[in-house]
Amino acid sequence: MRERKKMVLGVKDLIDYADDPEADDELPTEPMKVNMGPSHPATHGTVRIVLTVEGETVRDADVQVGYLHRCFEKESEYATYTQVFPYTDRLNYVSPMLNNVGYALCVEKALGIVDKVPERAQYIRTIVGEMSRIADHMTCCAAGAMELGAMTIFFWAVKGREWIWELLEEISGARLTHSYVRIGGVSYDLPPSLPERLRALFPKIEAILKDLTDATLENKIFRDRMDGTGVISQADAVSYGWTGPTLRSTGIAYDVRAAHPYLLYDRFDFEIPVGSKGDNFDRYIVRIDEIRQSIRILKQALDQIAPGPVVIDDPRIVLPPKQAVYNTIEGMIGHFKLIVDGIKVPAGEVYSHTEGGNGELGFYLVSDGTGRPYRLRVRPPCFAIVSALGQLIKDAPLADIVPTFDMMNMIGGECDR
Amino acid sequence: MSQKALDRAKQILGAIITSSHAHAGDETVVVETAKIHQVLKTLRDDGEIPFDFLVDLTAVDYLGRPQDQARYEVVYHLRSMKTGCRLRVKALLEDPDDAGTIPVISTVTDLWKGADWFEREVWDLYGIKFEGHKDLRRILMYEEFIGHPLRKDYPKEKRQPLIRRDPNDV
Amino acid sequence: MSEPVKTVALKIDGQAVSVPAGTNVLEAAKTIGVDISYFCYHPGLSSPAVCRQCLVEVKGSPKLVPSCYTPVAENMEVFTTSEKTLVARQQMLEFTLVNHPVDCPICDKAGECNLQRQYQSWDSEPSRIDEDKVHKPKMVDLGPTIVLDSERCILCTRCIRVCDEVAGEHQLEMAWRGDREQLTTAPGHVLDNPYSLNTVDVCPVGALTAKDFRFQMRVWELYTTDGICTGCATGCNVEIQHAQGRVQRLVPRENEAVNKFWMCDDGRLTYHELAKNRLGGARVSGAPKSIELAIAEAASLIKSAGPGLTVILDAQSTNEDNYAIAKLAHKLGATTAYLSRRAPDPSKADKILRDADQNPNSKGARAIAEAVFGSANVKPVDDFDGAGLLVAIVLGGHVSAETAERIGKVKTIFISPFGGVLADAATVVLPQAAWAELNGTYTNRQGLVQRSRAALEPPGVARPAHELAALLAKKLNTTWEYATWKSLLKELKDTVPAFAAAEAGRERPLVQLRFAHSRG
Predict the structure, then answer these.
(1) In chain A, which residue's Cα lies nearest the Cα of C518?
(2) Which of B29, C235, C327, C334 could form a disulfide with C309 if both were Cys (CB 3.0 to 4.6 A apart)?
(3) Rounded to the nearest 10 degrees, how much is the dihedral formed by the CA atoms of C323, C326, C331, C334?
(4) What domains lie within chain C, and their CATH numbers?
(5) Is residue A394 included in any domain, yes or no?
(6) B140 chain-A contacts, CB cut-off 8 A
(7) pTM of the predicted model as reported, rounded to 2 decimal places
């Protein structure tokens, strides 16, 4: 008989493996603490999950977020209302226009000028918002597929995302940190060639979606890993505060654009895709369908948009034209006071809600009458979603963490602010 | 938010509401802090307008308000999935001493699972304790952090080098 | 004691208001939070009603009425936001801005300018003219402290009234008329009265700028802390405005009982001393040492002195600093105390604000010394003769040269923010925090105990004298039951009659000026 080495696995010593008749059946499964650290190739966003695993099954999970906390809320108390826009870009940084729009709507609600924003500005906000949403969903689905091994799909999807970002860069000057929206409208008009170039993109994006779905919908590996994993019930989803595609994957058709129409969403015809089982695959397919709906909204918006001003005509909210600023004292003072003091928002509190990339993006603003927010709270959709991660991965295989976490679309900038 | 929600809340809660207002289309009720759990449970389980969705749970620090007014407000935003109505519920918390007594309010994690992380965040950033919360620890700041950064008397520029130490050792 | 004041009832914007008779409509409106724009009116000066910015509509009057000049009348009905009033306000601002230079980027007043604030609140119309503006001299030297930019001047005459009514000297006048009207000095005079810098405070625009502060710092970068001027015994209430770790300027705070709205130029410039000749580290026998070693050395000195210990208190230090040092010395055997102070300057005394006593806390230091040691044992420092004395704890040390020599004959523990002759001769030097760096109270010449707040961090290891006293007490194993300066004040309040009305006040978060509204 060969000499067998002593092996220590867990806390049990295997002294004579060969002599133990049941030894071949099971590996020792003492619970072990494993760190799925903040830096991990399969987690998108910096998140630390301290797992207690027994073999391949997760018994307990402590999800620790906060690695990207940059005190957005504290900083915004020291910035004027317009200075907060760059901070909002960096919330859900994959769909920054949606954050810009959400925040602008909040301040406009506090100012009482929501219906005075010019129509063209509202159309533009819708257009850039939906473009951002498409980019967000494509990133999520692509990254999710990549983590399951489908690297090619990721490259197809980010190719589509690049086209969108090219257009957004032309509109706002930056691919990701747009700061394009202003209180009372948007900062500049769309480039004249944009509508046709955007229209030209739709069939190309549809083609990418088709490739995506062809490669994944009937792919056994993909389906096995996504179907039935990360399942959440409707009641639990509501209890956790889930919104957006993840809530719709459970079958509840709650979309802020339809339930509480803002901007001009009540003029558009669109459907709300819902899933049925609340598993990862439903979240994936709901997002793909939402991209199609966004394209539908974009087509209608591009048809309906008409020339006009892109910002409200109120010198207490909007900077005067530069000609006036440099040459007249009135323009100079107006510019000066708006920059140094900020736009004076009447005292009070408002909560404004829009459909962000991940769900209901809320801004709760407490104003004290000066040009700086007294308190600006962001209700981050993915914070509530990720809070359920611990429950979803419990008693499930280790491998399920990857699709579950990825399909939640946790964006560190939004979850941690 | 709608007037219906406010009326219904007044109807089922009665005198527990200490004040209410509507501003910019939002309805708010301020309730007795000691009864906040009962208030939220009643609102959640109401038959007519069940406020079964906790949208947000946060706090505001009103340092600098006159002495007779509470320093903190814990703010709950509720939505009814059935009717779409929204309501804001506020509870006031004192901070009686200049030097750190910890304000306490009842938890609502037994009513909504999502309140878990929201309450942890309020503890982390404001230092408001939620009584009955099973795991009230910091969520966004690191464990060794001293202080509660969103309070108005925590200066934004203050630097706190991260020194490895026992988190319980304040 | 006072007769009942006759009150007048009137209506402003539909709201009933009741104010004492003689109040003008503008002030009456302020009591209910209604803001009426004005330039030439100032609550501390007479109102000439020249700017016409405060015009309001009064029922029954065919013309608009200047609210800063019109006293309230029974059953008057005032409308401050009627169409006529708003149009008048807007048009008046338009006239004021017609010749105003586009100077905001280079003007010191930007950020605290009344014209900017009124324009933004009441007139947001763009300019209607395209003419060349009237040009006037832009850098006129009015005197040793002030520079005038005539183009910015809106001819409100506040500065003239400050010189006439507050300083009592007629040094400024308006020359010429119409759009050529300019501010100028009175014939044969320059603007050199000791209250000249108040004109910079009251000027609603950046026409008058202080040479001391010109181009130094943008006002919205400043943080403001409430303090007390330490220039003389008047104890004018000030705002210490600081940024980047330095005091940038001092401006007066309103206090009806002490200084109303004003302060003197000497007081404004006291902040310069904070950067000169500061002690940041401790010394033992002239050599720099760590504060722990210095405290240890001082403790052993005190122990060796026994009854030969004395203390020299300081009329420049706060009540708490003085009390802590006095108490410590008394506990350790001292029986006599001396009071040191900056020499009085009778040439500075006037009936307006300035006092001959150039110390902020003469009364407080004396009251404390007498309370701790008994009035028989308190002497002025010039009587210091060193007989039977071995060690002196010297606080502040503002003494004449010969007194310094006599003090030099004993071993001294010198506690002061500033170096000097006594610091060089001392055995142990402990650095003290200066007036802008600590929280404490001063008793002014009226006996009012006023709180000053810390604006800056003290340099190096300097700290308030009461903290040094606590360290010494700990080293000497003496019980010291005063954990904070507030506990020292509390004991003074409870035991010494002069401090019966003292209040420490609540702590406040730091305020940056951009969060406050425009001054003036």
Answers:
(1) A341
(2) C334
(3) -170
(4) 7-97 (3.10.20.740), 102-115+130-274 (3.30.70.20), 277-499 (3.40.50.740)
(5) no
(6) 65-66, 69, 416-417
(7) 0.85
Decide if C515 and A336 are in contact by the 8 Å CB cutoff: no
Please tell me whether residue C12 adopts helix, strand or coil conformation. strand
Residue A53 forms part of a structural domain: no
The helix or strand, by DSSP H or E, that contains position C109, with its residue range, turns out to be: none
Do the Cβ atoms of B77 and A364 come within 8 Å? yes
CB contact under 8 A, A74 and B149: yes
CB contact under 8 A, A351 and B117: no
Chains A and C: how many Cβ contacts under 8 Å?
56
Min Cα–Cα distance to chain B from A188, Å: 28
Residues of C in contact with A80 (CB under 8 A): none
Q: Would the pLDDT of B150 be above 90?
A: yes
Q: How many domains does chain A have?
A: 1
H/E segment holding residue B12: helix B3-13
- Does A132 map to a domain? yes
Q: Which residues of A touch B55 (CB under 8 A)?
A: 241, 353, 360, 362, 379
For chains B and C, what is the number of CB pairs under 8 angstroms? 9
CB atoms within 10 A of CB A192: 7
| pLDDT (tens digit per residue) in A69-103 | 999 999 999 899 999 999 999 999 999 999 999 99
* CATH number of residue A325's parent domain: 1.10.645.10
> How far is C21 from C76, CA to CA, in rounded Å?
12
Instruction: Mark yes or no for CB contact C509/B64 under 8 Å.
Output: yes
- DSSP letters for B78-108: EE-TTT--EEEEEEEE---SSS-PPPEEE--
Judge whether C127 is closer than 8 Å to chain A, CB to CB. Answer: yes
Quick check: A330 and C125 CB within 8 A? yes
C510 contacts on B by Cβ (under 8 Å)? 155
Specify whether domain B3-98 bears CATH 3.40.50.1970.
no
Q: Is the pLDDT of residue A61 over 90?
A: yes
Interface of B with C in 27-66 (CB under 8 A): 63-64
C509·B98 Cβ contact <8 A:
no
Within a domain: A212: yes
Distance CA A415, CA B112 (A): 19
Distance CA A254, CA B134 (A): 30
Range of the domain at A208: 72-380
Taking only the tens of pLDDT, chain C with its 520 residues reads 556 778 899 999 999 999 999 899 999 999 998 989 999 999 999 999 999 999 999 999 999 999 999 999 999 999 999 999 999 999 999 999 999 999 999 999 998 999 999 998 898 888 898 889 999 999 999 999 999 999 999 999 999 999 999 999 999 999 999 889 999 999 999 999 999 999 999 999 999 999 999 999 998 888 899 999 999 999 999 999 999 889 999 999 999 999 999 999 999 999 999 998 899 899 999 899 999 999 999 999 998 888 888 999 999 999 999 999 999 999 988 888 999 988 898 998 888 899 999 999 999 999 999 999 988 888 888 888 877 788 888 888 788 888 888 888 888 999 999 988 888 888 999 999 999 999 999 999 999 999 999 998 898 899 999 999 999 999 999 999 888 888 899 899 899 888 888 888 777 767 777 665 545 4
Of C266, C295, C267, C264, nearest in space to C282 by CA: C295
| ipTM confidence | 0.92
